Amino acid sequence: MDSTAAARRGFYPPAEPYRVFRMPVGDGHELHVEECGRPDGIPAVVLHGGPGGGIAPPMRRFFDPARWRAVLFDQRGCGRSTPHASLKANTTAHLVADIEALRTHLGIERWLVFGGSWGSTLALAYAARHPDRVTGMILRGVFLCTKAELDWFYRNGANALFPDAWEKLTARLPRGERNNVLKAYHRRMRKSDPAARRADALAWAEWESSLLTLAGDGTAAADPKRADTLARLETHYFVNGGFLGRDGALLASPARFKHLPGVIVQGRYDVVTPPRTAWALAKAWPNARLEVVPDAGHSAAEPGVVDALVRATDAFADRLARA
């Protein structure tokens, strides 16, 4: 179904976390964690994108603070978690284990899982591993980390729509490396010195950020530290197929949680994670409702996407309060 532009919902007002703490998870990693809303609210965990992104204040604002207890955290190597951009013991299995360790640490029995882009990948992996700990899911810009999706974005697909941005990304590479951009940038982002990889990281992040919205925003390219984390962790995960075991593994994941309710929000003109993936997931998960936003791309901040996500959290709050 399509959302309409009439009477769209906006973000909830800005709010500060009522608790901020750090949680060691082993292997030298320590996570930055925030709890927002009310301590006795309906629990939800928020999974940011990337890999290599991080939480930001607007992510708190998808949840009614009078009803939710929203838990946000920076994944391994991301944001304010430490060590910065570390690849050590950093795989999807580690991240799934971190989510479960955080749930246990907070004494939460079950929670809603909310994730966009790479956050949707991680949400699906977590729900498949721990379906009994999930009350439902809200996913945006679904990404299953398949070869076809990665080829679309880094080999042949999105470059046909954004040849100018693609030229900036590939111009840094010798001609012989341009047939495998992901592999070439992965090699560069393995350098141990952040200064030595800075220019490549900025180019990588600029390509992605220029495609996020219908207008393009360039946000990631403006922050060298964020660009470094994004480029280093994305190339690390993507050359390894998301550490998911086999290509397309997550499309079979609903078999593990088909009883769970879900909402999938997808921008019609999302060229980062095209709608066909969300469509395929919705077909495999009949208990999920797919909402296509007709005037949006990939960004969670686009008005139609904000509207759909806020309505989804409100609806889940009503549903879970009655449970």
Helices, strands, pairings?
Blueprint: E1 19-26, E2 29-37, E3 42-47, E4 68-73, H1 92-106, E5 111-116, H2 118-129, E6 134-140, H3 147-154, H4 158-161, H5 163-170, H6 181-189, H7 194-209, H8 224-238, H9 254-257, E7 262-267, H10 275-284, E8 288-293, H11 303-322
Parallel strand pairs: 3-4, 3-5, 5-6, 6-7, 7-8
Antiparallel strand pairs: 1-2, 2-4
Helix pairs in contact: 1-2, 5-7, 6-8, 7-8
Q: Which secondary-structure class do the elements indicate?
A: alpha/beta
Gross morphology: globular
The ordered H/E elements are EEEEHEHEHHHHHHHEHEH
Q: Give the end-to-end Cα distance, rounded to a whole number of Å.
A: 26 Å
Question: Tell me, what is the CATH class of the largest domain?
Answer: Alpha Beta
Estimate percent helicity: 25-40%
Q: What percent strand?
A: 15-25%
* CATH architecture field of the largest domain: 3-Layer(aba) Sandwich
Radius of gyration computed on alpha carbons: 19 Å
- For the secondary structure, the number of strands is 8
| Total count of domains | 2
